[in-house]
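hi! just following up on the protien thing from before. the input was this:
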Amino acid sequence: MAWTGLLLLLLVFILTALFLFKMGSSQSNSSQNLPPGPRTIPILGNLHIMDFKRPFKTMIKLSKEYGPVFRLQMGSQEMVVLTGYETVKEALVNQAKAFAERPIVPIFEDYAKGFGIIFSHGENWRQIRQFSISALRDYGMGKKIVEDKISEECSILTKAFEIYEGKPFDPATILKAAAANIIVFFLLGKRFEYEDATLIRILELVEENIHLATSPAILVYNVFPKLGFLLGAHRTVMNNREKYHDFIESTFLKDIKEFDENNPRTFIDAFLVRQKQENKKSTHSYFHNDNLKTLVDNLFGAGMETTSNTLCWATLLMMKYPEVQRKVQEEIAKEIGVRQPRTEDRFKMPYTNAVIHEIQRFADIVPTNLPHATTMDITFKGFFIPKGMYIIPLLTSVLHDESQWEKPHEFYPEHFLDSEGKFVKRDAFMAFSAGQRICPGEDLAKMELFLFFTNLLQRFTFQPPSGTSKDDLDLTPVLGLTTPPVPYKTCAVLS
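and the predicted 3d structure came back as:
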């Protein structure tokens, strides 16, 4: 929807919904020691000062005025923003239990309906998360079997790149399909061909929904959900959800009645075994088909999107910084040679490891983090934060914290190297978030990134298309819940 349309819609709402005035700033006048924040206006709260395209930039600016813990109000929704490494660590790690919930966000509630793992709440979240972590480990996460599958996928991926014979192409869809196949292996024990039309369409649906999730239209919907019937973006997200879930039903769950409970082979089989066990114990179980469908949705989307976006940033950054690419290739040649890379190689390749970590830090894939909520009343950094408060632990402020990083706004692999060139872990590296809501697939993602990256750079040198210099390459991220680079073309030249 055009900006003029949004503004007109908002004006109509203001004129016809005066009863919402009572939600203005009543809590801001409370005698409780709530965090400070900018002055609100009726109905809009602080919407009038927000950068709708990149709200995290407004939050960074406000933190310089109000400190690392401050309050915002989006319409009637109050929220507390946490910025900087020390503050976010204190909340998500040191007081993890108190900050472990998800808030009620209309678009996420409509989409997930409280099921799955990413946007669920309370006991549903605890049960499904515990099962998911256990099942992912049982079916290969961190084990040789999944490493072999990733290596197999790497071989297919490099052959797909070779087809272009060094000519320009957009690597995004191929990288998304390759990353998707790894999570499909866990879920279903199979893979898709990269040119599979159904898979490509599903990847497009996932990408569109992630882009729309933080669009101005959805922001308006989250603040004023009764306007949903007027907002095209909301209808698009929900229509995409139906198509996506139809795909899950027909692809992942079509043989649901035929699995052998005595010989479970996949993540979905494990869920179905648990479902039968729970149904024998109680009439109320969290292991029902709605949870399974949403869980597959969560794992497929998250497992594909963040890894593939990071790999897209990797090839772009290697073109932008050819001297870094050359050093990685020299280390690969020295430590691996011509054999296929293995996970254990990472421990003797400090520079390559540092580059991968710096790609993740610089790419800043989920800048605002997914929102949290407090599970109890808490005094935090001297301020009172009530139970149920919407919390934004601003990851971008951690990954670019000037007190933690020598060159926070530059691509600088030396952030993860000591004076002797050895790899150094950095506590402020929170690319997967932290605490009880940390990404459950972190170990899998790390394995994927190392193997995909080293396989690609062992085989290819990435160069800009003819007529494009490295200085012409655009490092501006696309807007959305996640932030891939703007579409680009690369030339994968055989090394």
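The chain has a mean pLDDT of 90.
The longest strand covers residues 69-74.
cheers
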